[in-house]
Amino acid sequence: MAELHRRLGVLGLARTEGRPDLYDDQTVALVEAFQRSRGVPLTGVVDGLTATRLAEAQWRLGERLLYLARPHQRGDDVAALQVALAQLGFNPGRIDGIFGPLAHEALSEFQRNCGLEPTGVLTLATYRELVRLRSPGPARSLVTEAWTRAGFDIPHQVSVLVCGVGPLAEALADSWSGTTGVHTRLGVLAEAAAEVANDLDVALVLSIVPSPEVLGVRLHYWAGSTSHSRPGETVASSLASALSTIDGGPRVEVTGRTLPILAGTRMTTLHVEHGALDAGIVHLVVTALRTATTHLFHSESA
Fold this sequence. Notes:
The chain is α/β, with parallel strands linked by helices.
């Protein structure tokens, strides 16, 4: 318990009173504050996902060697590296705190431009060059955001993975049955779905699960502490707008999260949680989902 409070304190979430060896109401409030800052569900409990995010938050850039490994290294130091590279014009992909192939390539290109051996490993010499070249003034814009605004991240062809369980997932899969470029994996959830999506290299993932705790529909897109998925936000917002026009339709919430399915996929992913929906509403939600996805893709004339 003391270690939990120590870790929270390092992140600026220190106790103001009470015993650090107790999990009391103040601890719950601090854990919820951390969960809110990291885009994980607000439970006040240090569950598996929260513990993982706490472990990732302990790292600072320059404190360890960073390199492409299996499984990929994760942490705030990786996110800081991605931001630094993106500010200098090297595209590490999504700022997600995961050291993947794109981060490796961007770091190698940075080293090449600095006259260093392009190993893709954050050595002390590479770290010093990053510190030397980073501007002390106002934060520079990220090349990753410019890339998205320019439309380079928008796929030209529809390629979708529909996964999950429940009547909504089944209805959506049936509506797309036989459609070229659409893959369905009913019964596949969370990180398993991320692995399937990455192997298929689709442009969009729709992950759908029923939840008795949800009143209506919750739409989650990927959002980290330093950046978020603009295409994911676009799809979620478009779907929320469509659902809000349905007479007697479900209540809709849109949130950015760092859930495993969202963090683990390389492509745009929308994770949908829903409560009880009658057949008529399911049909309308399926129609709205299919319409919303078209906002991700260029028209044929574009």
